[in-house]
Amino acid sequence: MEKIAIITDTTADLTTEFIKEHNINVLSFRIIYRDREYKDKVDITSEEVYKNFEIEVPKSSMPALQDMEELYQKLEEEGYTHAIGITLSSGLSGIFNGLKMIAEEHNKIKSFIYDSKLISLGEGAIVEECVRMLENNKSFDEIVNEIPEIRKRIHLFFVVGTLDYLRKGGRIGKIAGTIGKLLNIKPIVSVDENGVYYAYDKVRGRKQSLNRVLEIAKDITKENNCRAYVMHGHAEEETREFFEKIKELPNINNAMYNGCISPVSGVHSGPGLVGLVLLEE
């Protein structure tokens, strides 16, 4: 009998309820201030990060290798035979390589560590699909074979209040040089096949940028039934309005408002993020 563990990280933005209900193992990123350090979503909330921006913008770090080691020791003690890990994009963090290394050292557990090349509910949607397959009694090999196909069906877009935070964190990728601040140009940010941010489109003004994301979603859902996830970074009112419009699109089978992104994602995106993930059913 296979006993399969699911592993992910805090940037997947899964709800606490989902994590507890399905026994997901979540590795916490670290948020580092000059004089203190926190575990993402454990010792600090997103709101605390945003409120403190005026005083200090923290740095971040991937989950500690020690945390990964302790997780695998726990899984071995609990009798797990297999583990599936879904991580934040390797284009944005070293967690994929770190977890893969630790998994290889624990060969009592057969592991598949997957670089989602996504962030937030893009990554989280893959985890959710793995859980569904697991609960439908799919085998380790069946789930592993399906994961790359799930990834192909995911679309992720977001807009931010300012690119300053992505720039400070070194996460701006292919968006650099595309923005005219004086013209109020707002990029629609997505991730490419390498898991690096790029400007999917550019429009002028905040309102127009949200309308453009809605248009992109309409084009995708014309051809496909989709599940939608909507999330924000310190932009709740705008995001709730946006969510109501997403719910009205044709061929949206299920739309979920997932609230605020993880504190560590907020460090890099800054306040004002509105995000959308579409999963083709």
TrEMBL record:
Organism this protein belongs to: Clostridium felsineum
Source organism superkingdom: Bacteria
Name of the protein this chain belongs to: DegV domain-containing protein
Entry's Gene Ontology molecular function annotations: lipid binding
Record key words, sorted: Lipid-binding
Function of the protein: May bind long-chain fatty acids, such as palmitate, and may play a role in lipid transport or fatty acid metabolism.
